[in-house]
Design a protein that fits this description.
heterodimer; A: about 675 residues; Fumarate Reductase Iron-sulfur Protein, Chain B, domain 2; 3-stranded parallel β-sheet; elongated; B: about 270 residues; alpha/beta; Rossmann fold; 2 domains; 7-stranded parallel β-sheet; 3-stranded antiparallel β-sheet; 14 strands; HdrC_iron-sulfur_subunit (chain A)
């Protein structure tokens, strides 16, 4: 009897899966068009899956191995089941392989079940709790019905009652694995995930050598503001591009993003996992009532819902997501770095913020004021743009306007208006002079890099600032830019390129000061005295580490100083944000605790007396934590303090003399 | 009703807002003028009122960008009464207001560019024969052609006034601050450009315009020797000092008093 029943079950499940797939694709196609190479993309899926994606999944060894056994077993079992049972190919060898595949899948399913007993809070419950049982149903059912084919049991063993029970188990398994895959069950992640890999919005993340880390492609994509028909950001789910919607649908609700999100940990109303699920809720025209994971802190589940063409954040009242959820994000990209489905959360958040700022004019708290200042004074604090170099009145910094060309363009950033960061800048200038670097600054021609404006969704102001900076820089010749601000570093390096023109190309060679100092150290231009300062830990800035993959240079510099870095539990690509990115200190969404306090807690656990940083934002955020706490020192300060007054000091002295005479001359002529 | 409450229902009210080109105090870049933007905000907060923006001035790219700052607050169109540079805009605005007959005209207390004397609303009121209120803080209600409004007085005081419409009202920094100007609506907003004959302001052409300097403050000489008095003097807000309060005087007596003061201060010689 099973001989007849099995092909019917298999092929009807497959047919339903195909119908479901068509429906699912139509859901995604509600989004905006986005051209992709279809055939090429599909061809790349195996490599992207087995190599690039595995790289990320393998960060959690337990689930990585479980997944290899379960998914590998399932794919093999499913294909063979179609051949053996669907088409009735009576091959004992294939049947034995099929048996082995189901055993592998069953073992995997046991580990899936074990992980969910009890489920950690980051995992979703609901239908996901059913999944291990369904996996077992499929593997056990398939194993049993294959035994006769393999010749272990006679074809008519057990009588029709057993056959009926087996048929029911197989139906359950097929229902979850084939039907559920395209109709929206937990297995949907396999179908959407594979296509997401094929049509990923940032194909650069898959380029060789294998390293799918988010750092490979982290620059935001520009809006075409010259075209008046360009939609300004995302108002409704259907405003996302179709492959973004596809990406959201690939979410497997593992909650790795939730576990890493600093805003979630601080009790701010953001949970990246829920945000992605809400986008799917909107795409499917429903409510979040059938979401079984952690909510946005402080926001009960079941109150929000939306539709593909309804607003995500309405001007008044409630829809899919509340504005404060979007403004809680520090754009630290911890979620993107962590996501095993390579979903781009930060892109989506900035897309929605763009709409709120550019169309609603609704940037919360100090947002509007900061943007107004950026427009009127080119810096977020509203300071006089002609006072940019006031802090360096005694340093006699060489100006690009005077020199015309230099080896290094020193990008100072908006930290020039901040007294704390001025200390860092002074230290950096001291280091550059000690190494006899030929550098110059733009002075009053420099403007805010546009980073904050862009993260606050004001693409128009970002592009204005960026174009004016590009124009200012195009007048001068320099071989590289060095900056101590990772935000400027990221924007100059990764986001200005798109805005250049043929006459004014904007592809710069940009160095964070830690990278540049490291090169100077390697070249032997700096000599240090012995380190006597006690234990030190290092805090990775998000925009240097996760955005640009620079984890080693700052540590190399610290090592060169003779410091043994006491690593925090969360460091490197898992470093916790200081809370200062993405305009979060400006929009200032309240939570239960502050992100920098949590980060300082991480520092405290290492017992370090000093925390080395490489970012003015991190410095400001961490120094805002109440004492007693570790001292905060920028890498440039540590290096400057350790400089030996040796051969380079002599030159330093002669430099000083030179500047002295120059000043005297000026006095005489004036 | 609490003071400074949310402005209430004003269905069918026709509000005209006169807007000018602003100038950032530090960088001198053109922008939406702060007080005029507050006037637009006040008009937008009147529920159900129809808001018409009006600007008399030149039509060039620099000015257009500044005017778009107002449109970005969510306004679809601005009427631009085109004028020559340094023209006297009072006649053209008088004509335009008389023709469009709004019930309420809102504007900032003084412009950030040009003469910036703050006299324009008074000249318009005189020409149109309408009452003028300065320091409007809130419009509480509008009933049967009479508006109940709050006027801001120094030191956070408020005075409730009833005024027969049509009227002109000016807002200053005691009015609620303007909402954010958004790029999308600013880009979409339209200009209804109406060329008008300009009347050259003969006096203005004679003037020499230069950036304002901070006026020197009079030194406060504290004679008292006790620490308490010195502290009080240091902590007290400068009130302008002196001055006299005239109650129930005839306009002639009032004018006489003002004339006397101006002569004492050396403004008139």
């Amino acid at each position: 009897m099973l001989d007849i029943l099995l092909p019917i079950l298999l092929f009807s499940a497959l047919a339903l899966a195909v119908i479901g797939a068509v429906r699912r694709v139509r859901l995604w196609r509600q989004g905006r068009p986005s051209p992709v190479p279809v055939i090429k993309g599909l061809m790349q899926v195996p490599r992207r899956y087995l190599v690039d994606l595995h790289h990320i999944v393998d960060r959690d060894k337990y689930i990585s191995r479980t997944h290899v056994a379960t998914a590998g077993g399932f794919v093999l079992a499913a294909l063979l089941a179609i051949v053996v049972h669907g088409f009735g190919l009576d091959s004992a060898i294939l049947a034995w392989v099929l048996l082995a595949a189901t055993v592998s899948m069953f073992v995997g399913a046991l580990f899936v079940a074990k992980r969910r007993n009890p489920p950690p809070s980051r995992l979703s419950k609901g239908p996901w709790m059913r999944l291990p049982k369904s996996l077992m149903a499929f593997s056990v059912g398939m194993f049993m019905v294959t035994l006769p084919t393999a010749g272990v049991l006679p074809a008519d063993a057990g009588g029709w009652l057993i056959a009926l029970v087996l048929a029911a188990v197989v139906t359950w398994g097929l229902g979850e694995m084939f039907f559920g895959m395209t109709w929206g069950g937990p297995m949907k992640h396999a179908f959407a995930g594979a296509l997401h890999l094929a049509f990923h919005r940032r194909p650069e993340r898959f380029s060789s050598p294998h390293n799918a880390s988010a750092a490979r492609s982290s620059g935001l994509k520009a809006l075409d503001l010259d075209n008046p028909d360009t939609p300004l950001g995302v108002e409704k789910p259907a405003d996302f591009t179709w492959n973004q919607l596809l990406g959201f649908d690939a979410c497997v609700q593992c909650g790795r993003c939730e576990a890493m999100c600093p805003a979630f940990a601080a009790g701010q109303p953001l949970n990246p996992k829920k945000l992605i699920q809400d986008m799917i809720v909107g795409m499917r025209n429903s409510t979040d009532a059938d979401y079984y994971g952690s909510p946005y802190p402080g926001k009960p589940i079941g109150e929000h819902g939306g539709s593909p063409n309804g607003p995500i954040v309405p001007r008044e009242g409630r829809a899919l997501v509340d504005a404060e959820t979007l403004w809680s994000c520090t754009t630290c990209r911890a979620c993107v770095e962590e996501c095993p489905m390579m979903i781009e959360h930060v892109d989506a958040i900035v897309d929605m913020r763009r709409f709120l700022t550019l169309e609603h004019g609704n940037t919360p708290n100090k947002g509007a004021e900061v943007l107004d200042n950026l427009i009127a004074t080119d810096n977020p604090g509203g300071f006089d743009p002609d006072s940019r170099l006031n802090w360096a009145a005694d340093l006699n910094l060489p100006l690009m306007a005077d020199k015309g060309e230099a080896d290094v363009l020193l990008w100072l950033g908006d930290g020039v208006f901040d007294m704390r960061n001025q200390r860092t800048l002074r230290a950096l200038v001291k280091v550059l002079r000690a190494a006899e670097v030929d550098f110059a600054v733009l002075g009053n021609e420099e403007r805010d890099s546009g980073d904050v404006a862009r993260r606050l969704g004001d693409e128009a102001t970002f592009q204005t600032l960026a174009r004016r900076n590009i124009r200012a820089m195009s007048q001068y010749r320099f071989s590289r830019i060095v900056t101590c601000d990772p935000h400027s570093f990221h924007v100059l390096k990764n986001e200005y390129g798109e805005l250049g023109t043929a006459e004014m190309p904007s592809d710069y060679e940009v160095y964070h000061h830690s990278t540049y100092i490291n090169e100077l150290v390697k070249a032997g231009s700096l000599t240090f005295k012995e380190w006597k300062g006690g234990s030190v830990t290092y805090h990775d800035p998000c925009y240097l580490g996760r955005y640009n993959g620079e984890y080693e240079a700052p540590r190399d510099v610290l090592r060169a100083l003779g410091i043994e870095v006491q690593e925090m539990a969360r460091s490197g690509y898992r470093s916790r944000c200081c809370g200062g990115g993405g305009g979060a200190p400006i929009t200032d969404i309240p939570g239960k605790q502050r992100i920098p306090d949590m980060r300082m807690g991480d520092v405290r656990e290492t017992g370090a007396e000093t925390v080395a940083v490489g970012c003015p934002q991190c410095t400001a955020m961490l120094e805002g934590v109440v004492e007693p706490r570790a001292d905060i020192k920028d890498i440039a300060e540590l290096v400057a303090d350790a400089l030996v007054a040796g051969s380079s000091a002599e030159k330093g002295a002669s430099n000083k003399e030179a500047s002295q005479t120059q000043r005297n001359v000026e006095e005489v002529t004036s | 009703m609490p003071l400074d409450a949310q402005s209430s229902n004003a269905a069918g009210l026709n509000v005209a807002v006169l807007v000018s080109i602003g100038r950032h105090p530090l960088t001198a870049r053109t922008r939406r003028a702060d007080q005029d933007a507050r006037a637009v905000e006040m008009a937008l907060s009147l529920k159900g009122a129809s808001v018409n923006l009006m600007h008399a001035g030149q039509h060039d790219s620099d000015h257009e960008e500044a005017i778009r700052g107002y449109l970005g607050m969510g306004i679809e169109e601005v009427r631009l009464l085109e004028q020559m540079p340094e023209a006297d805009v009072v006649p053209v605005l008088t004509d335009a207001l008389r023709a469009s007959s709004p019930q309420l005209v809102l504007t900032g207390t003084r412009a950030e560019t040009g003469e910036g004397s703050g006299i324009l609303p008074y000249l318009l009121a005189e020409a149109l024969g309408w009452p003028v209120i300065n320091g409007l803080a809130a419009v509480e209600k509008v009933e049967k052609g009479v508006a109940t409004v709050l006027q801001a007085l120094p030191r956070g005081k408020r005075r409730r006034l009833r005024v027969r419409l049509p009227a002109i009202a000016t807002v200053d920094t005691s009015a609620p601050s303007a909402r954010q100007s958004a790029f999308g609506p600013a880009r979409r907003g339209e200009f209804d450009v109406q060329p008008h004959a300009s009347e050259a302001d003969a006096a203005l052409t004679q003037w020499q315009i230069q950036p304002a300097r901070k006026r020197p403050k009079r030194l406060k000489v504290i004679k008292s020797s006790s620490a308490r008095d010195r502290f009080k003097a240091a902590a007290a807000k400068s009130d302008g000092g002196g001055g006299q309060l005239l109650n129930d005087v005839t306009p002639e007596q009032g004018a006489e008093a003002i004339f006397k003061l101006l002569r004492e201060e050396g403004v008139l010689r």
